[in-house]
Amino acid sequence: MTFRKRVEKKLHEEEKEYEIEQLMKEKRSEEYEVLEEVFDRSTLMVIYDFMNSGFIDRIYGVVKAGKESRVYWGKDKAGNELAIKIYLTVSAEFRKGMLKYIEGDPRFKGVKRDTRSLIFAWAQKEFKNLEQALAAKVKVPKPIAVRNNVLIMEFIGKNGISAPSMKEALPENPKRIYKMLITYLERLYQKAELVHGDLSEYNIMIWRGRPVLFDMSQAVPLSHPMADFLLNRDIANINRFFSRLGVEVVPPKEFYKVVTGSDSA
After folding, report:
1. Annotated catalytic sites, by residue?
2. Residue 265 falls within a domain, yes or no?
3. What is the Cα–Cα distance from 58 to 220, expressed in whole angstroms?
């Protein structure tokens, strides 16, 4: 790179930093101060770009905070509610956990093994999984945009209050919800060609009388070497939860057959 190019690049970076600082001042809130404290400059720049391009107009409070990510409530310029998921720089333990879901996934061949590259791939993976699930008519948050470690989705809930998970609020008609989940798993497997891989009462919301699957980042394609194991684990988790609610659950082997359309489990 020539000296002139280096100078131009530096000036461009400084201009972008000034712009993001001005934008934060214009839309100042306690949440932006928290954003500045928690996230690095590159993450803030991605958020700025999303705001500048109109995907995000406002960011409000944290609606879910975990070791791997934080989910913020936001709105676009039309007033539609958004879930803005920002993956954090994570521990080596979580990085190791990511690898088993990414390795064996042909969509992410050649991804680098450094932490930042894995996090970026993880966000892309969730976005693509949501797209495939939605196309298969499985109820999930609609994916809107993704860049680096920032994922924008439809907000499931109203006025910044998330729909409850089944763990937080038991379904009013568990038998009906159970049947709907069997249909969702069948569509996810046979149409989207995915296995959720971490399905339980903790990541199924109930919204307007219907189950909504979320936390789709670990979902794997059917070609993944762990797909069969993960599907059987999902089935066991769903049966365990609903049997406790008095639902007469489908035996695991039959459940597997319905989902996969095969005779073996």
Report:
1. 198, 215
2. no
3. 33
